[in-house]
Amino acid sequence: MSEISQVSTARESPVTHLKVRVLLVDDQLIIVEAVRRMLDGQPDIEFHYVSNGAAALETAVMMKPTVILQDLVMPDVDGFALIQAYREQEALASVPVIVLSAREDPKLKAHSFAVGANDYVVKLPDRIELLARVRYHSSGHISRLQRDEAFQFLRESQQRLADANIELQKLAALDGLTGIANRRRFNEVLDLEWQRGRREKTPLSLVMCDIDCFKHHNDTFGHQAGDMCLKKTAAILTGHLKRPADLAARYGGEEFALVLPDTGAKGAMHIAEACRSHLEALAIDNSGSASGDVVTMSVGVATVLPSAENSMEELVARADRALYAAKSGGRNKIFL
Ligand code: GH3
Ligand code: MG
Ligand code: MG
Ligand code: MG
After folding, report:
1. Would you state the pLDDT for residue 153?
2. What parts of the chain have a pLDDT lower than 70?
3. CA distance 299 to 257
4. 3-state DSSP: the chain helix, strand, coil percent, rounded to 5?
5. Burial level of 274, CB count in 10 A (0-12/13-18/19+)?
6. Pocket test for ligand 1, best of 182, 212, 254, 299 (most atoms within 8 A of CB)
């Protein structure tokens, strides 16, 4: 039982709002206690009361009860006037009001209905009767509420789910260390761009990069320095992309790939060279390595006009072979 001074507006599951919220307005605490005993402990009923008549209207507006049990005679207000006041409030206009009267009197009954009451019970009714009347008057209200709240809850849940799925899809496509596209995303994009190149008869270029003597860098400066180097390399690659459709991806450990749609060999070589020289210019320490004193990368470039006569796998294999040639050709080089 709670005398209402504050009503929580927190929304959890709609189920908590499907309880029949009974507000008893009665100045006599002995009546409050008797009604509480009848209603409390019912799983579908939430019992509240207000014994101060002057506070009844405000309390009712705040808590939006399902049913009001209304005393007629109170020291500070007139029960009839209160019922009329409920009816003038938008939030309470259709809330069923059951009058709890001390007297079995036809005139009081008639007047109660005239001012807007829905039912009239002489105090104190039998528990079974009171429960039956409360449930009878709240059934329509609850099912409407149930429907509206359930729809609202469903809509919000679906929206949250959709948002979460978008986030998950993004995460599933990104490399955890560098934040750029991962191998999975690379495969998806390469496939899409291959199809598009075939349809639109435009060249597709693939640039494969591999950091030189990265094992030496890791072994000499530590794994954290190695991670930092990977992040910087990723940033260089994305920084040199020119079009929205271009993609930079982490292909494997210290290997990266660029997918460049509608780009010929010349354009791809140009971007590859910009990336290679940019990394060299960062002068990340790799002293003592077989490929020089700073971190560099070797690059293989391949370009194809996608068609039925060639394949995506061939394009990847050609870029790989070019990369291997750049490695055997002395590293820090670009081969086509
Ligand atoms: P090469 O010039 O022939 O490419 O030699 P390399 O040393 O770069 O190539 P190798 O394949 O021998 O070594 C690659 C190293 O990259 C070994 C591996 O531990 C390291 N590596 C792979 N992934 C990560 C990572 O996420 N972080 C760090 N710090 N190191 C990584
Ligand atoms: Mg009274
Ligand atoms: Mg490698
Ligand atoms: Mg390497």
Report:
1. 80
2. 1-17, 141-146
3. 9
4. 50, 20, 30
5. middle
6. 254
Nearest alpha-carbon partner for 299 in 211, 197, 229 = 211
Taking only the tens place, the pLDDT of each residue in 190-246 is 999 999 999 999 999 999 999 999 999 999 999 999 999 999 999 999 999 999 999
| Distance between CA atoms of residues 73 and 33, nearest Å | 17
Judge whether 254 counts as a catalytic residue: yes
Neighbours of ion ligand 2 (CB under 5 A): 27, 71, 73-74
| pLDDT value for 5 | 37
What is the structure's pLDDT at 11? 44
Name the residue of 178, 215, 324 whose CB sits within 8 Å of the most ligand 1 atoms, as the mutation to test its pocket.
Answer: 215
Whole-structure pTM value: 0.61
Cβ neighbourhood burial of 248 (10 Å; 0-12, 13-18, 19+) = buried
Residue ranges with CB less than 5 Å from ion ligand 4 = 210-211, 214, 254
Per-residue pLDDT at 17: 58
SS3 130: helix
Helix and strand totals (H; E) in the chain: 10, 13
> Does residue 175's CB lie within 6 angstroms of at least one atom of ligand 1?
no
